Structure formats: structure tokens, C-alpha cells
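REQUEST ID: PR-0412
SUBMITTED BY: lab tech R.K.
PRIORITY: routine
TASK: structure prediction, single protein chain
INPUT:
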Amino acid sequence: METRVSAAANLLRRVGTLGPREASQRMARRVAGSLAVRFDTADLDFPLLPQDIADSTTLQLTPPSAGSSGPELRIAWLCTPPGPGSGGHTTFFRMVRGMEERGHRCTIMLYDRHRGDLDRHRAVIRSGWPELAASIEPVPASLAGFDACVASSWDTAHVLARRGGSSMHRFYFVQDFEPFFYPRGSLYSLAEDSYRFGFTLLALGPMVASTLLREVGVKATIIPFGSDVAAYRRHQSDNRSGVVFFARPGVDRRGYELGRLALRQFHRLHPDQEIHIYGSMVRGWGIPLTQHGMLSRAELNGLYNRTTAGLALSFTNITLVASEMLAAGNIAVLNDHEFSRQVLTNPEAVWAAPTPSSLAAALSEVVTDSGRNIRSERAATHPGHSWAAAQAELSQIMTEVAECKI
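STATUS: complete
OUTPUT:
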């Protein structure tokens, strides 16, 4: 009885300290955590089936056969089902399209450990990436009948290690150092181990390549970053106002909470400046927001052209949002980090310390700059590179490896 009375008294004290809303939110999180333990729901969030977990210390891959089946490679592209507008999938599918344009036969292999609706996944891909000609299939028990297979993430690298056919060449298109997505622990270790499987590593940008070498001791070929120069460009208009932020709650490496705190401070400094949010629909900011949800590339280019500045936050490999904003004449404010500086060379980008006050001050400096229109023009005219160089580099590496030239 005393225990229950003490617990009730403690709860009342917490409600008085936190307020009923925050106290109820904390209680809900505790209940959710208890239910997860009781019913083992954490297993549902684990990205791999038990039989698809590989181990570099015991893995014995059969070397691929010498040469390819012919000038047209049969390539399996291994990925998880994308959501609409997924940035990582967009870059991966650009590489698929680059190989299709060179005459290779491509198949997108979807790994869905929950065995979801394949037709729905196909519809998402056909709608979001209509340029792809590749067939779309579920990953079979054995990936046979291909000259090469390309993994797109640490979990699909495990699947490739476990299911890859003995005669195929195995590639790993590494867009980020994915252990950084997690605290030090099980997922961190499994992600890190995926780089030790002996695949040909293709690293998107110098940050990934240098981090792989420093953290794991493995070398990778750098695939250069590109930008969608056809979709993102500046309109001839100086009537810009407001700022924009790509919101990804729950993806901490994209700085959602930091962006929210910074934009609250920015609103106090500039209540007349409209704040635009796209990506996820958000709640509880306590300031006026204009929410757009998911946008097409054309719609997003229009939004960038209507606004003066934007937050482009990333704490691992750089987000493509930054270069796309700048190409449209929107001045991107980034958290200052060596990873991003290795890639982004546009001199009009604004770098700020990753604190709410510093980011808010950087946005404020841009929107109050009397020369912001000239600044916008300079940002948009900085030379950009399409994805053609990345596609060409990947094609050359894959072809030479498949033909056993390297």
C-alpha cells in the first residue's frame, strides 16, 4: 500500500513540475517501452531476418567466375522498399538508370523482411521513378543468374552475403557511413561489419571513403556527388521571402529537433518571415508554419524560388537538399561540419555552429542582407555537376570488375 501511495505522490509531483501534457507524454513513452519488452515488438523493427545476418569472421564467399556473360551485364540492384520521395533510393535509382542507358539488363530486387504487398511497392517505384525500365522483384532465396549484384545499405549487404550466387560479382554502393545512424551497440556493429564482407565498395563522395578507411580500415572507390541540374534552377524573380526546412522527425542525423529550436528563435527575431516546412507534417511547434507535406521536384524548385533561405542540416554525409536549394537561388544554411565541407564548394553556402542561436542568427543574416538578390544569383550560377559523371564512374568500375580487368 505504501508503495502505491508513494508512486501516486511521485506522479502528482511530476505533473506539477512538468505540466500534465509533458507528464502524459513521458508516461506514454514508458508504457510503450514496457509493451515493447513484454511482447518483444523490438524484433519487428529489426531490419533483417535471422537467417540473413552475415558474419565477416566466418563468411566464405566463392570467388566470382572469370569474365561476364557478355557485353550486356545482368545486374541485380538490392534495396529495401522505398517510400515516396526517398532521397537515398533516388540516388541509387539514378545509378540503375545510368547502367540501363548503357545497355545493361537491370532488375531491382526488394528485400522486405515483413513480406509486404509487392504490387504496392512496385506502384510506389513506378510512380516516383518513372524513368526506370528495370523489372521489380522480391529477393529470392538465392540470387542466381546475374553477373553482378549491388547492395544499397548495410542490411542489404548482409542479404547479399547470405543469398548471393557463387558466380556473381558483389558491389556495395555506400551512400553514408551507416553505423553513425545508431548508438554504439548491436545495429552499429552489424552495420560496421557489412564493410568487411569483401565486396567492391563504391563510396558516394570523399566523406564516406575517408570514414570507411579511418573507422574500418577498408578502401573504396569514390563515386562523385552530382545534383539534379535539370530540376533545380533559379527563376528570374527577386520577390523572395521566408525560409524553408525539410523536416524528418525521428531521423536525428538530419537535425530535426535542432532545426525546430532554431526556427522558433528565428520566428522571435522575424515574426514577419513565413516558415515553410516540407517532408513530414509536424505538430507542436508553437509558431505559425506553412506545411507542404511531400513535394515533387518541380514543386520543390518552386518553393525554393519563393523563399530566401533554408536550413539544410546533416550530421553524417551531406544532404542533397543544400545543393538543390543553392541551385534555385535559395541560400542554404548548414551546420558546420568537416563531412559537409568535403563536398559542398558553393561559396554562397552559409556555415553555422550546430546550435539553435547560431543557426537562427545565420538565417537572420541572410534574410536581412540588402544584397540578398545578388547573392541568390551568385549561388545559382556556381558551376554544378549533373549525375552523369557519377554514372560514368560507376559504370566503368562495374564493367572492369565484371570483365576481371581490375
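NOTES: The chain has two domains: 50-226+388-402, 243-381.
REVIEWED BY: pending
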